[in-house]
Known about the structure:
With about 100 residues, the protein is mainly alpha-helical. The chain has 2 domains: about 1-60, Orthogonal Bundle (Helix Hairpins), CATH 1.10.287; about 65-100, CATH 4.10.830.10. The chain has 3 helices and 2 strands. A hairpin with a 4-residue loop joins strand 1 and strand 2 (about 80). Helix 1 runs antiparallel to helix 2 (about 40-50). It is elongated, with a radius of gyration of 20 Å. It comes from Pseudochelatococcus contaminans. Binds 16S rRNA, required for the assembly of 30S particles and may also be responsible for determining the conformation of the 16S rRNA at the A site. Belongs to the universal ribosomal protein uS14 family.
Amino acid sequence: MAKKSSIEKNKRRIALVKRYAAKREALLAIANNEELPIEERFEARLKLAELPRNANPTRVRNRCEVTGRPRAYYRKLRLSRIALRELGSQGQIPGLVKSSW
C-alpha cells in the first residue's frame, strides 16, 4: 500500500489539472499558432508559465485504484500487476483466469 500522502497529493494534482485544463488549452493554442505575431505568442508562453506546475497533466501519476501502487500499472483495468493477480485468483475479474500447472 502506498503512502496516504502520495495518493492524496496525486488527487490534488488531478483536481488542478481539471481546473486549469481549459485555460491551459487556450494559451497553448495561442502560443503554437504560427500565424500570430511573435509578441502575442510570447505573452501566451509567459502566462502559461505562471500557471501552477501541478496543473500540467504530465505531473499526474497513474496509480492502482486498490493499493495506490505507482508502478506496473495496467491502464485498461486501472490496477497494478499485484492487485490484478490477487483479484484474478479470487475470481473477481470477469474473463480472467490465473494459470497454474
